[in-house]
Amino acid sequence: MIKKIVMATNNANKLREVREILSPLGIEIISQKEAGTDVDPEENGVTFEENAFIKAKAVHDIIGGTVIADDSGLCVDALDGRPSVYSARYAPNDMKCKKLLDEMKDIPENERTAYFECCIALVTSNEEPKFMTGRCYGKIGTEERGTNGFGYDPVFMYGEKTLAEMSPEEKNKVSHRAKALEKLYDYLKKRNGE
Fold first, then answer.
1. Full domain range(s) for residue 112
2. What is the pTM of this model?
3. Which helix (H) or strand (E) holds 63?
4. Which of 14, 73, 101, 188 is the most core-located residue (most Cβ within 10 A)?
5. CA distance 132 to 42
């Protein structure tokens, strides 16, 4: 039975989302720093799955136990899927949306489709790693809107709103991370025999 999970991250926003979604299971979720390690492995994978596994394994190799890590990013059809696994390194944090809007300024409305993808890797001591993937489909808007969320949320349109215009509860129903976490939730619930 899994009672505690270490999340291989120091990102407070991600940690909060994971805690909110998994809280009904009664499993304690702590950050890698709270677990006593602070590794930052090189994410040199070419897929979200590879990068999530690199992060989870790096923390697991130090502390053991059950570790999860996620890797996620934005894939824009008109940019041949970029920035994809390079989403975090695409531009400095406060410049990501601006750079994306600049790159897409001549792309017509009907060609601005995009999706967020999230892959969560679950690494334990005596089992093969498990992977859960979720996607959120939408399009890239033409301006930044909203103050909630982080990263590319202010330019990612889901219906008539950007993710940054949604409440955390609304976003947790539709986001790529929420969809991957729902799969993790179902797996952990079954595994813990609930």
1. 4-191
2. 0.90
3. helix 48-63
4. 73
5. 21
Which residue matches tokens 């799955």?
Answer: 49
Give the Cα separation of 131 and 119 in Å (integer). 7
Cα angle value 158/21/38 (rounded, 5°)? 105
DSSP class of residue 126?
S
Q: Is 102 noted as a catalytic residue in this protein? A: no
Per-residue pLDDT tens over the stretch 137-193 = 999 999 999 998 788 999 999 999 999 999 988 988 898 988 999 999 999 999 888
How many domains is the chain built from? 1
DSSP string, 127-190: S--EEEEEEEEEEE-SS---SSS-TTGGGEEETTEEGGGS-HHHHHHH-HHHHHHHHHHHHHHH
pLDDT at 194 over 80: no
Residue tagged active-site, from 71, 80, 106, 186 = 71
> Token pair of 171, please?
């976003």
What's 177's domain CATH number? Answer: 3.90.950.10
For residue 178, which of 11, 17, 1, 16 has the smallest C-alpha distance?
17
